[in-house]
Amino acid sequence: MLKQEINELLTRTGPGTEMGDLFRQYWIPALLAEELPEPGSPPVRVKLLSERLIAFRDSAGNYGLIDEFCAHRGVSLWFGNNEQSPDEAPGLRCAYHGWKYDTTGQCIEVPSEPDNSTFCRKVKLTSYPLVKVGDILWTYLGDPDKQPGLPEYEFCTVPAEQTYTSKRWQECNWLQALEGGIDSSHVSWLHNSGLKNDPLFKGSKGNEYNLKDMRPFFEVVESDGGLLVGVRRNAEQGRYYWRITPWVMPAFTMIPPRADHPVHGHFWVPIDDENCWVFTFDYLPVRALTEAERQAMRDGHGVHNEYVPGTYRPLQNKDNDYLMDRDAQRRGDTFSGVKGIAMQDASLQESMGPIVDRSKERLVSADSGIIKARRKLVTAAVELREKGITPPGVDPAHHRVRSVATVLPEDAPFVEACRDDLIATPGVRQTTV
Amino acid sequence: MTLTSRPSLPETRQPTLLHRCAWAATAQEAAYRIDKPPAYVRTSRVFGLDPGAAGVVHDLAGLPWHDTRFLPTFEPGRLDDELRDADFALMIATADDGAAAASAIGRACWQRGITTAGIVLDLGGVGPHRAATEAVAALRPHARVLLVTGDRQDIVEILAEVGA
Questions:
Q1: Does any CB of chain A come closer than 8 Å to the CB of residue B39?
Q2: Among A7, A62, A271, B15, who pairs with A275 as Cys (CB 3.0-4.6 Å)?
Q3: For the whole model, what pTM was predicted?
Q4: How much is the pLDDT for B19?
Q5: What is the pLDDT of residue A350?
Q6: Which residues are CB-contacts of A324 (< 8 A; sequence separation ≥ 6)?
Q7: Interval A118-175: pLDDT, tens
Q8: CA B145, CA A157: separation in Å to the nearest integer?
Q9: Residue A83 carries which DSSP code?
């Protein structure tokens, strides 16, 4: 059980909070690039770390992420006109009185002022950088003088034909969602049907090891950027099947691969303290995704999901009880009665409540990865605040990690045996079983 | 989305209205969770496997715990007594000379259905390039969970979290 004040520290990410300051050291996913597909696209409301923002792409193609509300009367710029006339300077014009802003938040026109007025130069909204890397538009909400290098996670640096990213709204605090990504011990239970049937999971020899050994052993080792969580199960005589999950602080996790299926993982991004975005990726280091694989992802298979049409809200959500199917549960088609790996996780994590009260939980030693991750987050947040120490995971070199699935001799230490496999190396296939 | 806009579902898939998920997951409803903690007793033993670990275990023993016994030095003749009624055994190593003790404790715990965990306290710093010390190899076969760390506060945290 966690002290209430530590739970508060870990779960609150708004401006001025310890964990909010920590998140503001990193580039984080803000939205999918598909949400601003072309110059002059309609602006998009974005809330991150409890800050309400508007993202837009001006007629010249520049990306901007600025305060959602006009400096004049506090109107939402979501109603604004992203002007596209070649005779006009690019910018987003407020729908109320026509104040106009560029992608840096600088006001460039106040129509009520005289033609030669310089007043607009004195008006500037808060703005943050917005940069496309892979399928994601990333932002950095911290001190501009400390802006780190851009993200180098492999899923967003491989060629476009080798990667696919989706996102979904999860209606709970970011930490209880992230902890599901670190906790490997639930997979053999909650997701057992997915291992057998999902087109992006099935057919792996590793699945057989997974399903035959329901009591795995765990090893947790610190890495430069966070943790490596190794889970070993019995394989053939004298050998272990290892699944190694990297966590890069603060919110990146990668699932170990299965056979030649695409490798997947998540970025867990706080919207506010009671909601988060789950960015979900699938990629391959050395080949393009097939159309069948890409279609399976669009259809919500693997770790992706189906949507309420026109939104990033999952089709199965708490308003329809996640389309719970007790007959499927009774038949063993699904363990929880909820279809799909992503929503199996989300339904249970949302059931904990908006922010789970960790002072009431009772952990076991198999939860050591979660315990250690919380400690690393707390330590990093405190050391940042008190000593100004840059936390793990800021350095882009820490992003170049891979998950691994492999079979090793019983006496082989997993970190040393897989040292090269755990590093993202361009042109080298993932290590998988 | 309201219930009236739900997809048409067979009768067996209808939710129970009073506790449907959207309402049950609210902060207001969380206030109605039973406040009395569930019955939960963990009977733990903490073993030091080498002289360096003995000092760590001795220091831990000075903190307030529930039903936990601390054994800085491994005494094979007392193992049966020490493990009686235990359901969790944590082994702490700082070096590789505790392999025989780890093996004896691990086997005894296995026979009694006692969960084992191991912590390798690497006071020289840890990382993916140094993690596989001899101490890890000695503990691996006997610890269901193994944590390699340079921070002795991790031990306190894990013991506290598992209810020691």
A1: no
A2: A271
A3: 0.93
A4: 66
A5: 97
A6: A337, A338, B13, B15
A7: 999 999 999 999 999 999 999 999 999 999 999 999 999 999 999 999 999 999 999 9
A8: 34
A9: E
Selected for mutation to probe chain A from B140, B152, B156 (highest A CB count within 10 Å) is B140
Q: Do B13 and A171 touch (CB under 8 A)?
A: no
Preceding omega of A250 cis (within 30 degrees of 0)? yes
Give the nearest chain A residue to B128 (CA atoms): A223
Rounded Cα distance, B80 and B119, in Å: 22
Q: Does B19 touch chain A (CB under 8 A)?
A: no
Model ipTM over 0.90: no
In the block, residue with structure tokens 């990306």: A63
Task: Name which of A177, A137, A351, A179 is nearest A273 in CA terms.
Answer: A177
Helix ranges restricted to H, A198-320 = 205-212, 291-298
3-state secondary structure string across chain B: CCHHHCCCCCHHHCCCHHHCHHHHCCHHHHCCCCCCCCCCCCEEEEEECCHHHHHHHHHHHCCCCCEEEEECCCCHHHHHHHHCCCCEEEEEECCCCCHHHHHHHHHHHHHHCCEEEEEEECCCCCCCCCCCCHHHHHHHHHCCEEEEECCCHHHHHHHHHCCC
| B129, B146, B157 ranked by CB distance to A219: nearest | B146
Angle ∠(A387,A388,A390) on CA atoms, nearest 5:
125
Tell me if A371 and B27 make a contact (CB, 8 A cut-off). no
Q: Convert the pLDDT of each residue in A287-336 to its tens digit.
A: 999 999 999 999 999 999 999 999 999 999 999 999 999 999 999 999 99
**Interchain proximity A366–B15, CB inside 8 Å:** no
Residues B30-65 pLDDT 10s: 888 888 877 888 899 999 999 989 999 999 999 999
CB atoms within 10 A of CB B59: 14
Q: Please check whether residue B118 is in contact with residue B147, taking contact to mean a CB–CB distance below 8 angstroms.
A: yes
Instruction: Return d(Cα A127, Cα A58) in angstroms, integer.
Output: 14
Chain centroid to CA A294: how far?
Answer: 19
